[in-house]
Amino acid sequence: MAAIEELQILNHALNSQDWTVVEDQGLTEEHFLIYKDVYEFVSGFKKARGVLPTVETVMGKFDTFEQVEVENADFVVNALKQDYLYRQFKPSLVSASETFAKRESIEAIEALHAESGRFLKSIGQRGQGYSYVGNAEQRLRDYDSKHGRNLEDIAGYTTGFKPLDVATNGLEYQEGAIDYFLIFAPTNMGKTLMSSFMMSAGWNNGHANDYPAYFALEQRASEIALNWDNTLARMSRLALSRGALSNDQRDMYAHYIDVLKRRQNDMVIYDLESNGGKPYTLDQIHRILEKEGHNRWTLDQLSKVKLSNSGRGHSDLRQRLFDVSAGVREVVLDTRKPAFVVAQANRDALKRVKKDAAEGVDITDIGEAFSIAQDASKGISIVKINENTFRITVIKNRDNGSGQQFLVRYDFESGIVAVLDDQIGEHLF
Fold this sequence. Notes:
alpha/beta, 12 strands, Rossmann fold, two-stranded antiparallel sheet
């Protein structure tokens, strides 16, 4: 503990009647573990009266406060900062040592690496707000970098659906607009089908450095991969599963695989088998994104994520989903990697659309935790009209309008996904 340093810097400030030696160095009450009450008194005195109290005034109020000399104020300030950082990071070190003690060395190293990165970022960001005036020139430069575009030219990754791209600007990843894009539907309504298609559509659009991750927490990785083969290779999904392609189709599939192997960028699927049969935690997802260098990701689905490896969790589903969703948003912002996030609507929504497919699913059907909708920057709902037709509705669209609807036909036999438009025919992807 830096008790003597706390006394020294407080004495220095009082003797010199200069509080900037504390404020300008970024020292706050968090740096004064022993003499926090003295710090708060002096700080409050300064705010109320515009001057600092005398050393005698402080000594008269606090029996534990005493006069000490200061030889090097810069050295004292640095000691206080180092002590504060030690206290803040110590829990992470303790946790890592406990993991090491269990002979889980890789997990401990990865956890410590992720915590170190977050900690270093927090140090750089501490106390730094956004200056409206100071950042004005940067905002102009940001605008000029995209000046001349049409309203239909999107800045983010394509979702695979032109009406959705136009409405939402795609999956955005620029500074200040890193998306938590919610994909939301009742059970058995095509959430995984649509989320896997939306991710592969962006990957297939030609971004050379695109390297997305798909966390499949309900289906096997091979099933997601076959979904991609269905739409990218235009092969029958059923025939792929049952080995029923014709000889010509099999040769076309082999040709597609040969071309695929020569691609420079990849997509990676992380399923439960990849994690030893255990659900992923938020920390594990965070570490994978950082370690493997993925630039965006899909989480399918939200309710299957664990908060931690401790085995302890909220028995209250609402609170657990609240915490997981907030954690996902934190991962998106901390890594600056946008995500499609799949979540399930509540049972009432399922009953309504089962009874009448014309019924909608909106943001109030978010299930057990409305906070998911608050965390998301954008969101769509999906309703299955029939076996291969789906209605997509924009239910949240930060900085843009919502409520747009369109129909999608997903032909499992040909692998063609089309937006149905009565006026201009079908948009094929």
